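Q: A small favour: would you put together sequence and structure tokens for a protein?
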Amino acid sequence: MFFCKFQLFLVFLLISSTFGKSKKFDSFLENLVLEGESLQNEKNNNENNEGEEEDAIVSLPGLNFELNFKHYSGFLKVSSNHFLHYWFVTSQGNPLKDPLIFWFNGGPGCSSLDGLLSELGPYIVEEDGKTLNKNPYSWNKYASIVFIEAQPTSLENYEAVKQFFARHNTFRNHSVYITGESYGGVYLPTLGARIVDGQGEFPINLKGMAIGNGYMNAKMNIDTSVRFAYGHGIIDQKVWNTLEMECCRGCIDGCDLSGLGQSCGRMVEDIFEFLWHSGLNPYDLYRDCDPSPGRNSMKMEVIKRGLIPSRMLHRIYSNSTKTLRWNLKSTLHGSPSVPCLNDTALTTYMNLPEVRKAIHIPDNLGHWDICSDDITEKYQKQIDDTSPFVKKIIKAHARVLLYYGDTDMACNFMLGQEFCSKLGLKLVVGKQPWMYGHQIAGFKTIYAKGLTFAPQWRAPQMDHVISQFLLNHPI
């Protein structure tokens, strides 16, 4: 894959065999997304790097390796009574020159510390919930990274970015990349568009955006989820034939599955529910589910609810009990729901008193959780299609990388593929394999004006992809 010097290609990258979980979090969420005046006297954001040193993490409990970078944890004031928690790790390379990444997990209502402590950060929480091991594939080997908690709106995200620069002014002119996963497919394009619109007032050196298994379009997500399920042998042939002949006039391709009424609509809803509650792992079809306690099933529910189009929500959940309907249970050979995510170690670590003290969490804040159903329920969806925002970012000469794991069912690669193809950009390089070592790691599609699509998601391969993307080198 080749990039121009100034105006790079939009690349769609498909990665074979999903490594990571599109798994989302909930931080101290309704607590870390601080409302009221609990931090008013403790944390104020001032200009000229004031506050940077008070956010410095002096000693982080559980580390079993020597650090060669600095790290910070504190709060960013995004309104008169609203704060967002952040955790910042500087580059292991040259922090004075290396790019600056802002990372956002999805939800909505999930914590970006999932990305820090179990995916791409420099330390990984071990199963004992006490130890931090070194992550050999950390993205901070070549970039400084800011992880921002519970990001409800693009306006608050944008204000958090500006307030970060107020506290860490040294990084003010660095090349900036906004990155994330899953519902970050909404957060990031809307944030990027705000950055573009605000360049006159607050210049930010935005160079690119990278999104993993992004929720880019609500309708496409439902439509492609059904086709993905059938293509992987999950849907019974009888159900598929009924849907095709009675609901889509003999052709499912091009059929608006998210907009079908009554019995056909319920059939689609039941298929979508089955993908999440059949005992299959929605984040990696071929990976076992973790039979962990009930808290994780609520976590999955929080994530799933964020991926359902607004017009389907009222039909999937009854207004009184919010219980799920299973009209096709017997036909879909339904089985009991098994929570697939086990974040016990991470939750344990984040709630250790010595850890809270080390990362400057006030005593009046409550228990930390990986995802907040309270935030999710209050969140008002306003955007079902992010293409106008992506186009604005591309028009501003920022590069875009959309990468998808080919076994992720939550936000599948067919969604990303269709989304890219309908942006109206010239196809530069059709689907072709990309290599990691001597093996095919996935496939890439390159579009004009800076868009790359690449399905895949494994730690070593993604480490390679992101480093190449930041360096503006071929993948």
